[in-house]
Amino acid sequence: MTPHLPKPCVKLFPKSKMTEFISKKQAKLIFFFTLTALLLLFAPYLGHAVSLPTITFGVDNADSPKQVSNAIQVLLLLTILSVAPAILLMTTCFTRIVIVLGFVRQAMGTQNMPPTQVILGLSLFLTFFVMSPTINKINSEALQPYMNEKIDQQEALEKALKPMREFMFSQVREDELALLTEIAMDREPTDSVDVPTMTLIPAFMLSELKRAFQMGFMIYIPFLVIDMIVASILMSMGMMMLPPVIISMPFKLLLFVLVDGWGLVVGSLIKSFG
What we know:
Elements: H1 15-42, H2 65-90, H3 94-108, H4 116-147, H5 153-171, H6 174-184, H7 197-236, H8 244-258, H9 261-272
């Protein structure tokens, strides 16, 4: 006679009950760890009240010319800070890089691929890569001595401006520089020191735009040839209603990948700064 065995323990907990039990247990564990993390985070503030800073804005009548001057200085400073990143980028290689990468995307006809954020991010990192010698020189000759209080603010600005002017003079074209100096200056400069920075920056930007459009033209040629070949084949087959761009885009992507297009474009961009 076989002894009476108890039923398996699994049957004491049906599947739905077991799932509910496990989920409740997991929820308790999550709540416990979350509460512990919050206590550890705010432990230093539990003994006293947490004080939050307040910011007060006010508009009062100016009682003296000094107060008016201070208010104007604050407004000018905020205005300059809002456009300072754009001014700094225009004095670097960012203009040429971002325009050429934009031409690559338009030539391939991939609409928004790669996205604008990716192109801007790649352009910024390539800018830092190309400008690293200039940035290191500014850091060692101007920023660090100023932070160590070895030089004053005016001298630091002059020393920081010198490497930037050297970089812009190395990339500016003579035609653009001559055009801007003829318009802005009364006499012809005899040396690079005689060229003001406000004249050098627009001449440098014009040179960067010209080089970027020249490189964009060279990038467009192979993709244009593919579009023309595909369009002629479609017309010979009588498929005139089918847009050639739809058929040519995979071939352009295949060509771009096979020749390592991104490596060629980025390498040519970096080498163009010599």
